Structure formats: structure tokens, C-alpha cells
Amino acid sequence: ARSRHNTYLSVPLVWMMINSHTTVPFASSPVYLFVMIVIGWGAVYLLYQNTTRVKGF
User: Fold this and answer.
1) Cβ-Cβ contacts under 8 Å for 10 (sequence gap 6 or more)
2) Nearest to 26 by CA among 15, 37, 14
């Protein structure tokens, strides 16, 4: 269960690390926002799909 917990907590952690670097592109065009939402959704979907195969301790 601990490894699954770490997997779930990695998503907000990565988002917080990237968040401070993405304010300028989002201010110039809404296309960047849409692209980042699609990429983020896909990454989270694949990560959470992978958690079904992670065995707990």
C-alpha cells in the first residue's frame, strides 16, 4: 500500500514543481493551456492506470 500511496502523491508534487514555470506561456495564448491540460490528463490517466499493477508491502 505504501508504493501505491507514493504513486498517488507524485502527481500533486510534480504539478507543484512545474506550476511556477508555466505562468508566462499560459498568459500569451489559451492554446498552451489546452495542450497542457490534455498532456496532464494523459499523464495522470497512465499513471493511475499503472497503480493497479503496483503491489503494496
Assistant:
1) 47
2) 37
Instruction: For residue 20, give the 3-state DSSP assignment.
Output: coil
Give the Cα-Cα-Cα angle 46, 53, 48 (nearest 5 degrees).
30
Domain that holds residue 19: 2-53
pLDDT in tens, 14-52: 877 877 776 666 667 788 778 888 988 998 888 888 777
Tally of domains in the chain: 1
36 or 1: whose pLDDT is higher? 36
Would you say the C-alpha torsion 47, 52, 2, 55 has a positive or negative sign?
negative
